[in-house]
Each structure stands twice: as C-alpha cells, then as structure tokens.
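Bumping with the actual sequence this time:
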Amino acid sequence: MKNIAVIMAMDSEAAPLLNKLEINHKIAGKIDEHLPMKVYKTKYHGHNISIVTSGECKRNKVQNVGTAPAVISTLTAIKDFKADFIINAGTAGGFKKRGADIGKVYTVDTTVFHDRRIPIPGYQEYGTYRSEHKIATDYAKALNIETAIISTGDSLDMSPEDEKLIESNLALLKDMEAAAIAWVTDQYSIPTLFLKSVTDIVDGEHPTEEEFFANLKLASENLGEKLIELIEKI
C-alpha cells in the first residue's frame, strides 16, 4: 500500500477523476486555514489517495495555476499526508511538429524550466533545472502511451526567449507546474510520475487561450481515464 498524492492545478482538471472515484466535489478539506488548496481523500486499489487541487485565488477569483501553488501543494502532500508516490496530473500545450494531438495523454520522462534565465555560471543550469524521471518509461508501456519532455513556465504565452529554450530542450509539452513539482520531489527523493493531456497546440493556428478552454473538458476526461488506469498499475 502506498500513500499516493495526485497534485492538480484546476478543479476542472480534477473533476473527471473525482467522478470516477465517486468523490463528492463539495466535501473537500483544506490543507491550511490560510491557504486555498483543497484536498480530497479516499482509498482505491489498496492505496491511500490524496487529491490536491490549487483552489481559487481569493483576490482574483480564478484558479490558482502556476508554480507557486504547485510547490505548496506538493510540499504539503509530502509533509502532512506522508505521500511516498507523487503524481502530477494536468493539462498542457503541445507542439504539433513533435507529434502532439489534442486530447492525447503522455507521461513525462524529463522536466525543465524555460523562464528562469540566469546567465551566471552554475546558476544557468540551476535555472533550467533539468530532471529525468526514469519511471515514466515503464508506466508509459503499461498505459500504452508515449513519453515526452515537458517545459515549465509561469506564462500562458511564449516569448521569443522562452521559445529558444523550449526548442533547445526539444520539449513536446509546455505547462505551468511540472518542473516546479519535480524540484520539490527531488529534494525528498520521492518517485514522481507526470501525466499530461494536451489542450492546445502551441505551434498551431488557433490562439492558445481559445483552444485551451475549447478542449479542456475532452483533455480532462482523457486524463481521468488514464489516471485511474495508472493508479491500478502502481
């Protein structure tokens, strides 16, 4: 039996998984009285499952996406929920030139940052913080999906500088959480698996923000199916 924590940014991304596990969306607990993150706990397939979402920003009334909430959620899962296996599940943009398709689900074998540019010896590598996740290969085979390199940054759009770094790392996916979560779990040497479903084609013809919302439900449903399958194989 493992204590598995599923770290997710948006409530809409988590909804299909909660439905499949027959968890009432309205019975979420809070990780801290001062923080917006929500947690749902259950048992499934012999494991203790904690599903942590980033909740809503109290100031702007939108979902807490990005690296800062992801770090807090992950650290809390490890320290308070005793998680010994982390799954970061969510949506991502994908690059058509590397084979990405809307709704396609990937595991991630490499995480890297593209918006932490620190051109000082030693700090440059720290900024990009490339991490390899070898367990992705075995689980990709078990789930019959592909592995990918994912690049993380806190902006939805892509500046020319971001694009250069993303290209230099041959990233297939682009998101706002994965590499930050990898940094946390690296400190604790905890096995971490990333499961990402494509909502938008970064190098496509449609604006990212429009495509994201148009495909969020499909991508989240596909993600939920693979999440259940994954937990059953752990």
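The tokens above came from a reply further down the thread. The mean pLDDT is 96.
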